[in-house]
Specification:
The chain has about 300 residues and is an alpha/beta fold. The chain folds into two domains: about 180 residues, Rossmann fold (3-Layer(aba) Sandwich); about 100 residues, N-(1-d-carboxylethyl)-l-norvaline Dehydrogenase, domain 2, CATH 1.10.1040.10. It is built from 13 helices and eight strands. Strand 7, helix 7 and strand 8 form a beta-alpha-beta unit. Helix 1 packs across helix 2 and helix 8 packs across helix 10. Its EC number is 1.1.1.157.
């Protein structure tokens, strides 16, 4: 496996492309918008510069990593000759099903199709293709260049061979792959999102303020980041989407999103990406609020 395509140049997509390229793989980074590709490359460059500053890599490694990435706005040009495609588009079922239907028609028969979804059924995504045995979940954590975990999610039809291949590939990236089965939220978000939702409920019910809730969880439970600040980093719209997937999948009211979360998303207060969520991410506060990201 030598050539990788990554679909989507956003936060997760550019991070995934960065990690593959830094480990010597040729990467085709695909997005429908050239502006998104330019922004993604700028983010990769900035993160490589941070690694140089911390003496993790040198300038030559940075240049080699960037040279391994080629950008495309045309899906067919970007994926037709690749060995693995990792989809990291918006967490929306209809969008993902359409992407996988297109990938199945374009890619070589032996190409493995992976998705970075954090909650959507791998089985359902695989059913949109004629190769469900070659469809698998690769759920990277944010920020991808730093976080070690990759959830490897087997759909109902995912083959043992494909699972083993992706587990070994993840290890070659310096990651720690953990195999899980295909149920709503998998492991990470099935546990994390109810905690975040309960933190929002605690705020909604007036038990304590934002900073107080986060302080209790950081100092009392040794979490590196409070749940409300973490929600801001994930994106409140993404948190809402994941909770809705779990609520729809389990029909259990414990996964129903808090009304405050719903209202904040409707108001466009999505966290870091919009400049405001539970915290203020204006320029004067940005350094303070995101200083933990690359510790």
């Amino acid at each position: 496996m030598k050539k990788i395509a990554v679909i989507g140049a956003g936060t997760m997509g550019n991070g995934i492309a960065h990690v593959f390229a830094q480990n010597g793989y040729k990467v085709n980074l695909v997005d429908i918008a050239q502006a998104s590709l330019n922004k993604g490359l700028a983010t990769i460059t900035k993160n490589l510069d941070r690694m140089i500053a911390k003496e993790v890599i040198d300038e030559a490694k940075k240049e080699a990593t960037l040279a391994n990435i080629t950008t495309y706005t045309d899906l067919k040009d970007g994926v037709s000759d690749t060995d693995l495609v990792v989809e990291a588009a918006t967490e929306n079922l209809d969008i993902k099903l359409k992407i996988f239907e297109d990938l199945d028609a374009i890619c070589k028969a032996e190409t493995i199709l992976a998705t970075n979804t954090s909650s959507i059924s791998i089985t359902k995504i695989g059913a949109a293709t004629k190769r469900p045995e070659k469809v698998i979940g690769m759920h990277f954590m944010n920020p991808v260049p730093i976080m070690k975990l990759v959830e490897i999610i087997r759909g109902y039809s995912t083959s043992d061979e494909v699972t083993e291949t992706i587990m070994e590939l993840s290890k070659k990236l310096g990651k720690t792959p953990t195999e899980v089965n295909d149920y709503p939220g998998f492991v990470a978000n099935r546990i994390l999102m109810p905690m975040i939702n309960e933190s929002i409920e605690t705020l909604y019910n007036g038990v304590a303020g934002v900073e107080e809730i986060d302080t209790v969880m950081k100092l009392g439970m040794a979490h590196p980041m409070g749940p409300l600040q973490l929600a801001d980093f994930i994106g409140l719209d993404v948190c809402l989407s994941i909770l809705n997937v779990m609520y729809d999948g389990f029909k259990n009211p414990k996964y129903a999103p808090c009304p405050l979360l719903v209202n904040m998303v409707m108001a466009g207060k999505l966290g870091v990406k919009s400049g405001e969520g539970f915290y203020d991410y204006s320029e004067s506060r940005k350094a303070e609020n995101i200083s933990v990201q690359f510790k």
